[in-house]
Amino acid sequence: MSAWLPGAPCTPRACVEATRSVAAVPRAVLRLTAVAALVLAGVALSPFGDRIPADWTRRWCRAIVRACGVRVRVTGTAPPSGGLLLVANHISWLDVPLLAAVRPARMLAKTEIRRWPVAGALAARGGALFIERDRLRALPDTVARIAGALRGGAAVAAFPEGSTWCGRSQGTFRRAVFQAALDAGTPVQPVRIRYRAATGTASTIPAFVGEDTLLASLWRVASARGLIAEVEVRPALAPGSHPDRRTLARAAEPGTAGEPRWTHTALVA
């Protein structure tokens, strides 16, 4: 198995809550229409690239999540400027705009996404770093490209689990991407993402796992009511604070023993 291609046992049938309600159809249609309008606006503005202020990008990403009917709560402190490896656990396609709402970054993405309609073009224009997950020989070159982007002062966002999980269970962080931060001498910003129902209980409705399709997942999220995305920005791990990529990856994982619990809410949308 490739270092980029771990698997998760989560499947839609076993893990994901259903949202079957005729009454939810008009709500879902309106929400998806709003999402489509926002995405098309992003496509229209994407040629302007770096000239778009970062705060506009953050607001646009929050607006996409909110248009899906998901409230956003970000806690913790603002990530540092300059070169930064932004890492998070991976549950849903919603994770991508949620990370960009923390800090816009070049996304580390599988090559298959380049071929997706609309999303592939947006990712490429946004400076995504595409990886061939099934080619172990491509690993050193990919790490070198990530390190180069970090040295150049860019933020790079990655989901080191390498696969989506339902949110009630999680995988371990793969170590390869952390080598790039070590090589570049840049900090690592861990982020923890959770999805909850209005009652406060964990929700798997946003999970995008196994053989689930993007269309089915979009409809499930847009049909739901009261979903909340919690984004916890944990303290950045400074360069040199960990001697190797194994300990650095372990320190960045969600649920690490002794991690601080944040109480200040920076955003409620």
Percent strand equals: 15-25%
**Structural class from helices and strands?**
alpha/beta
Count every beta strand, where a strand is a DSSP E run of 2 or more residues: 8
Taking pLDDT < 50 over at least 5 consecutive residues as the criterion, the unreliable ranges are: 256-269
Q: Taking Cα atoms only, what radius of gyration do you get, to the nearest Å?
A: 18 Å
Shape call: globular
What is the ordering of alpha helices and beta strands? HHHEEHEHEHEHEHEHE
The DSSP helix count reads 9
Q: Which descriptors would you attach to this protein?
A:
269 residues; alpha/beta; 8-stranded mixed beta sheet; 9 helices; 8 strands; globular
Report on the structure:
The chain is α/β, with parallel strands linked by helices and 269 residues long. It is 35% helix and 16% strand. It contains 9 helices and 8 strands. It has an 8-stranded mixed sheet, with helices on both faces. Helix 2 runs antiparallel to helix 3 and helix 2 packs across helix 8. The longest helix has 22 residues. The C terminus is likely disordered.
Please specify the SSE layout and strand pairing.
Blueprint: H1 12-15, H2 24-45, H3 54-67, E1 71-76, E2 84-88, H4 95-102, E3 106-110, H5 119-125, E4 129-131, H6 139-151, E5 155-158, H7 176-184, E6 188-196, H8 214-223, E7 228-233, H9 245-252, E8 265-268
Parallel strand pairs: 1-7, 2-5, 2-6, 3-4, 3-5
Antiparallel strand pairs: 1-8, 6-7
Helix pairs in contact: 2-3, 2-8, 3-4, 6-7, 7-9
